[in-house]
Design goal:
five-stranded antiparallel sheet, about 30% helix, Phosphoenolpyruvate Carboxykinase, domain 3, alpha+beta
Length: about 525
């Protein structure tokens, strides 16, 4: 894979979790790999902190010297799910200690104390922090969670939109930058806005019941996500040891304290089933991909700071951060019409997605990696459905195989020949979804008709596994296109019954590869779902 900090990022491929560079023998456990990758990013660098929006000084004050913390505490057994915010605020030459507390998802109660000097406000802050956490503020980098006390939530600060530089006279001045016009076409601008949209990321987090007030965008912490993985490790171990209800309630409380959720007035659930653990794994992986997208934005913003007077348009910077060329396709081209026919023929009567636009995709270095399979025949253009919140991560890092990912055909990258199958895994924003068409080098296929979740690679002598469905796009209507000089089959017919697979456990075929080098993203579709 590329930089270690991206190793934990995850996306769906036909609905399954994926991670980069699976070619190494027997990859580490998913939690270990993801946790180590997140921690490998190093300590967080906190930027400027914002005054709590519910504080009456939010518009006139500023956080004093980083005295700002968000605390969380969940206790499943007692139906506790609460927060505590403590800040020192400087405003109008005075200093204030600000406290706000209550149940997650509610404004709660608050208290503002004024002081003539900073020492008084800082002392009040440190006392409250010690009372609530049993930790000294000075020891927060080695914070230890205590039962019945609040836990410190790791968040990153924000950076100023304007740049401040030292003038020749030694004074600090603010420079207004000249932003260049955007060079992207309108359709691509809209796509980049969508896949980097804070509103879209917030919507995705809220759908997972995450508390975006405690884990706000731009402040997501790799360390906090890694801690979430650690707690899920403990929960899995407890389940394997058949621990009792009390222990699982305790660990569930620890997880929801570490990764704040908004359950309203409902009692936080106990994580006591494998299905719930899998759901939380997926949630953390989506969260890691959202963090990656936010990191890309922060990196481009940092680059802007180094440009004193003239800077590229923000959308150009976001696009550039993907390290991926997206070429808008003309609707009148033959390949567009082939893709549109493929979509319509293999969609079901319920969803009926409609193409808004299609882009050719060319990820940096992916072509070179894919060339390892130049001698492999039997290539197909196959569907991949995903959550829109992880599209930026896919474009930057490609499709990845998660070590823990399972599913009905084991640990690999899942594709489908029917749009209706992959569309089940699309998560939209404002009725817009994103799907990919990948060129997949299938080589010699191994056919199965029953579930085999133990698969980690294709059987000896085979390059891929196909779980044959009882229906399949009519193979007599397949066409062949040429991509980089190689023949690639593209289904064009409607799904028809396959009598030879009438007893298959699968309704729709699923195509599995167990090496990331065997696929290459070719087209991105923006769809009205």
């Amino acid at each position: 894979m590329a930089p270690k900090r991206r190793a934990a990022s995850a996306v769906r491929a036909g609905g399954k979790k994926v991670k980069e560079e699976p070619d190494a023998p027997e990859p580490k456990d998913a939690f270990t790999s993801a946790k180590e990758a997140l921690l490998a990013a190093g300590p967080q660098v906190n930027g400027a902190r914002k005054v709590d929006e519910h504080c009456p000084l939010s518009s006139s004050g500023e956080v004093y010297e980083g005295y700002d913390c968000t605390l969380n505490q969940t206790n499943v057994g007692h139906n506790n799910n609460k927060f505590y915010i403590i800040q020192v605020i400087e405003a109008n030459n005075k200093y204030y200690s600000w406290n706000r507390w209550g149940r997650v998802g509610e404004v709660g109660q608050s208290k503002l104390n004024g002081f003539d000097k900073s020492d008084g406000a800082v002392k009040d802050f440190e006392k409250k922090f010690k009372d609530k956490t049993k930790n000294n503020w000075s020891d927060r980098t080695t914070f230890v969670s205590h039962a019945g006390k609040y836990t410190l939530i790791e968040v990153d600060g924000e950076q100023d939109a304007e740049v401040k530089v030292d003038s020749a006279e030694g004074r600090t001045v603010t420079v207004t930058k000249n932003v260049l016009p955007c060079t992207l076409d309108n359709a691509t601008k809209e796509l980049i806005q969508l896949i980097f949209s804070n509103d879209m990321f917030k919507e995705a987090m809220e759908c997972m019941n995450l508390d975006i007030k405690k884990m706000p965008l731009g402040k997501l912490s790799k360390l906090q996500i890694a801690k979430g993985f650690e707690v899920l490790e403990e929960i899995e171990a407890a389940m394997n040891q058949k621990s009792g209800k009390a222990r699982l309630e305790e660990l569930s409380s620890k997880f929801f304290t570490t990764v704040p959720h908004n359950f309203g007035r409902s009692r936080p659930p106990t994580i006591d089933k494998k299905e719930i653990v899998e759901e939380k794994k997926e949630m953390l992986m989506v969260l890691a991909d959202i963090e990656l997208a936010q990191t890309l934005k922060s990196e481009t913003e940092k680059a802007r700071e180094e440009m004193i007077e003239t800077v590229p348009h923000p959308l150009d910077q976001d696009y550039s951060s993907l390290k991926c060329r997206l070429t808008l396709m003309d609707h009148d081209t033959e390949i567009f019409k082939n893709i549109e026919k493929y979509l319509k023929a293999t969609s079901d009567g319920y969803r009926k997605p409609k193409i808004v636009n299609v882009w050719e995709v060319d990820r940096e270095t992916e072509g070179e990696r894919f060339s390892k399979n130049d001698s492999m025949e039997n290539r197909r253009l196959l569907w991949h459905g995903t959550n829109i919140a992880v599209v930026a991560a896919i474009l930057r890092s490609g499709l990845r195989i998660m070590p823990h990912s399972g599913g009905r055909v084991g640990r690999g990258i899942y594709f489908a020949s029917e749009n209706s199958k992959s569309a089940c895994y699309v998560r939209t924003s404002k009725n817009t979804g994103v799907m990919f068409l990948s060129e997949v080098a299938l080589g010699k296929e191994y056919t199965i008709t029953k579930d085999d979740s133990s698969l980690k690679k294709a059987p000896a002598g085979y390059d891929s596994v196909v779980a044959r469905g009882s229906i399949e796009p009519d193979p007599t209507e397949d066409i062949v296109i040429t991509l980089d000089g190689r023949r690639v089959s593209v289904p064009q017919g409607k799904p028809v019954h396959q009598p030879q697979f009438s007893d298959s456990y699968f309704s729709n075929s699923e195509y599995l590869i167990y090496k990331e080098s065997q696929c290459r993203l070719r087209y991105l579709l923006a769809l009205n779902m």
